[in-house]
Amino acid sequence: MSQRLRQAATILALLLLGSAVGAQELLWEARAGFRDFGPIAVVDGVVVSGPPNGDRGLVGIDAASGRILWRAKGQVASGPAGDGRHVYAAVRVDQLVHRVIALDAKTGKQLWAAEGERWGGASRVHVADGRVFVVGLDGKARAFDAATGKLLWTFTYSPGKGYCPTDIASADGRVYFGGGESAHPRSQGVNLWALDAATGQEVWHYALKPERYSRIGECVQAPAVANGIVALTGSNLILGLDAASGQVLWQQAVLGVVDGFERRRPLSAPHIADGRVYAIYEEGLAGWDLATGARVLSFDGRFPPAERIRRIESADGRLYFTANFEQPEASRNRQGFLYALDLASGKVAWSHRVNRPSQYSDPDTWPTSEFTLDRDAIYYENFQFLAKLRR
């Protein structure tokens, strides 16, 4: 069966599901007075987010009611992330200086702050084992003591300014992230870095080179790690690397027939769940066995063309993502729906429209790039609002 026929069959099957694919219960919508929300963290019963554009800062929203509890000043540069009681983020002080902050999740009260030129802005803040990790636009990664804000170590991933840095993953006393330098004669290249989380010392690095002309490594998506294996995507490749040594255990390429020609299909950041790793490309979602790289899932559909808004979350045997199967002829940028894919049946369990009419925006063109799961709920952002949906 051709790729287009498979996609048509998938869409038809979704339509035939009828009432089985119904709207989930929307519990609340919160509007904080700014246009768009960025990354979302749920910490101690508080939903924390903020706009990546403008200086409205972070906002804390009661997860039960949707009531705004507090606001913290500063333009959000990195984050937020939480450790159960506290929220950590990086905000812009001015055009050059970024301030890494720790806040009480319930009150928004600032507990500590540390700042320097371009210390944030490259990726989300990451918290693990009592340390706060930040990848900066200055080509350095840093670790802070989560309790005091003391700078523990600094690692230079780029002697110049940072180039295509990613979010951080961590496990077994190591942190992993991608980044490096753009091509020039003395460039150290772009790598996936593995660092000792306690000391910041390099454990290993790996340069992904999917094309013959890519001599210094290619930009990668944010890694994922579990069961001693780091899952990595870059261009149309997905790899499994030994987390301790960086040795490549397996590698797979994703190709698709587009307009009659076989083409490389760029992949989203990987997501690991229950011994499998998943990634999205424009025409589908695929899954591989984490240990062997064997293909275990192929799901055809219409996904956002930009890798940065292809986000996957998982819980209770389901994968969650945004796409648009209901309107196959819609514009390439029109997602419109949040889906729950049941992995046991390979079918969509339900869908929910995430973009809705507004006097300021065409709902069909506003993307939802951020959502997160917590207990029995999903929190997602769209134009001017952040919403809670029953899962």
> Count of helices?
1
Q: What is the strand content?
A: over 45%
Radius of gyration from the CA trace?
A: 21 Å
* Beta-strand segment tally: 34
Q: Spans with pLDDT under 50 lasting ≥5 residues? A: 1-21
**What's the domain count?**
3
What is the CATH topology descriptor of the largest domain? Lipocalin
- What structural category arises from helix and sheet content? mainly beta
Query: Major beta sheet, specifics?
Result: 4 strands, antiparallel
Multimeric organization? single chain
User: So what's the overall shape?
Assistant: globular
Task: Quickly describe the structure.
With 391 residues, the protein is mostly beta strands. It contains one helix and 34 strands. A four-stranded antiparallel β-sheet has the order 1-34-33-32, with no helix packed on it. A four-stranded antiparallel β-sheet has the order 2-3-4-5, with no helix packed on it. A four-stranded antiparallel β-sheet has the order 6-7-8-9, with no helix packed on it.
What is the topology?
Layout lengths: L2 H14 L9 E5 L10 E3 L2 E4 L8 E5 L5 E5 L2 E8 L3 E7 L4 E8 L5 E8 L8 E3 L2 E5 L4 E6 L5 E6 L12 E3 L2 E7 L9 E7 L5 E5 L17 E3 L2 E6 L2 E6 L5 E6 L1 E4 L2 E4 L6 E3 L2 E6 L2 E6 L5 E6 L12 E3 L2 E6 L13 E6 L4 E7 L17 E4 L2 E6 L2 E6 L1
Antiparallel strand pairs: 1-34, 2-3, 3-4, 4-5, 6-7, 7-8, 8-9, 10-11, 11-12, 12-13, 14-15, 15-16, 16-17, 18-19, 19-20, 20-21, 22-23, 24-25, 25-26, 26-27, 28-29, 29-30, 30-31, 32-33, 33-34
Describe the structure.
With 391 residues, this protein is mainly beta. The chain contains 1 helix and 34 strands. It folds into 3 domains: 112 residues, Thrombin, subunit H (Beta Barrel); 121 residues, Beta Barrel (Lipocalin); 135 residues, Lipocalin (Beta Barrel). Strands 1-34-33-32 form a 4-stranded antiparallel beta sheet, with no helix packed on it. A 4-stranded antiparallel beta sheet has the order 2-3-4-5, with no helix packed on it. The protein is globular, with a radius of gyration of 21 Å. The N terminus is likely disordered.
